[in-house]
Specification:
- The protein is of the alpha/beta class.
- It has helices at 50-54, 83-97, 110-120, 145-152, 156-166, 169-177, 189-198, 203-213, 215-231, 248-252, 254-257, 273-287, and strands at residues 10-16, 19-26, 33-37, 59-63, 102-106, 125-130, 235-240, 262-266.
- The mean pLDDT is 96.
């Protein structure tokens, strides 16, 4: 990338699945498309530093999932906040934009959402970047304990325990900083923005519904793994190794279904882009973009 070249980011909305989907876009549409799918509790904002580093090589598209960021869901849409619904919304989104071929960058919630899209349109996917995007049972860490208890007994008490542990400023701050060697690299507006958007009317109930529905993702893991085996895509599995939610065995497991997958562990936590964006961008260019090291 030429250092003095500027690739502006476009901030836009499109109508898809009865929803006004917000997305960030950069790079020439004639370039290979990289679809960037965020996780909890963030939004396309998490890709704000990655996008300019790749915009000379890729056409980058980063939507906000329903319930996150700046995507707007009309009340009359009666949207059910599930990962199946996310997969259908993403399918409608790529159709609305006319995206017929794309590599996927999946992180956290973006993995089960994006892999459902991949199952709907397997022939369209040209590559995979999984950054702490889990698809294997062995990838679930101990931090899931209160949510697992909620899965087993979805009582009001367990729902409140998850609420109190996660859906507040301190809980979000912990997710960004846990396992980070250099916390001064993490911009505080990250968890502050997430916390602010959580305070929208009804949003915490949406998040609690999604925590409960996450159990259904585990049932889809065999389907996702079959997709990896069948397609054998160029794959970069790049992982913050101190992530308490998605642990390194989940990264290594990708090679069971795609022996050619490149697996790398980074000395950081869950939100690896906050501390290692340059390294991740470089490896995407090499593994997905085909550039020589």
């Amino acid at each position: 990338m030429t250092m003095n070249q500027h690739y502006p980011v476009r901030y836009q909305f499109t109508e898809a699945d009865g929803i006004r989907v917000f997305y960030r876009e950069a790079g020439a549409p004639s370039n290979p498309t990289l679809l960037l799918l965020h996780g909890f509790a963030s939004s396309s904002h998490q890709f704000r530093e990655l996008i300019p580093l790749l915009a000379d090589k890729f056409h980058l598209v980063a939507p906000d999932l329903p319930g996150f960021g700046f995507t707007e869901v009309p009340t009359e849409r009666n949207y059910r906040y599930t990962f199946d619904a996310f997969g259908e919304t993403l399918t409608a989104f790529v159709d609305a934009l006319g995206l017929e071929r794309y590599a996927l960058y999946v992180f956290d919630y973006g993995a089960p959402a994006g892999l459902r899209l991949a199952l709907n349109y397997p022939e369209r996917v040209t590559g995979l970047v999984s950054q702490n995007g889990n698809a294997y049972l062995e990838g679930l860490g101990d931090a899931w304990a209160p949510i697992r208890a909620y899965w087993d007994t979805p009582s009001a008490e367990n729902r409140q325990l998850v609420h109190d542990a996660v859906l507040n400023l301190e809980g979000l701050r912990w997710q960004y900083l846990h396992g980070v060697k250099n916390p001064e690299r993490v911009a505080p507006e990250t968890w502050q923005l997430d916390a602010l958007l959580l305070e929208r009317p009804g949003n915490k109930e949406i998040q609690l519904d999604l925590f409960l529905d996450y159990a259904n993702n585990l049932k889809r893991y065999p389907d996702f793994q079959a997709f990896f085996r069948q397609r054998q895509l160029p794959s970069l599995i790049i992982w913050g190794e101190h992530d308490p939610f998605f642990i390194p065995p989940g990264a290594h497991a990708y090679q069971r279904d795609n022996p050619n997958a490149v697996v790398e562990l980074l000395d950081t936590g869950h939100f690896a882009l906050e501390t290692h964006v340059e390294q991740i961008a470089s490896r995407i260019r090499e593994v997905i973009g085909g550039e020589k090291r």
